[in-house]
What does this fold into?
Amino acid sequence: MLSALVGKEVSVNFLDGFSAKGGILEEMDEKFVKYRTDFQVLYIPITSIRAITLDTKERERPRVGFGQ
It folds into this structure.
């Protein structure tokens, strides 16, 4: 299932609540995931991942102010 995400920009959410965003899922096997950002390459154990998300649509920013 994760093999469909290889080569795409994803966010990785960890079991401890932290997350890694803006990187590309480069490789994966049954124990580790290789995740590359602009600044580092992470080798993440599968057992520490809660979820991997793929943003399919950019979110609109909420409007600020009282204009109509």
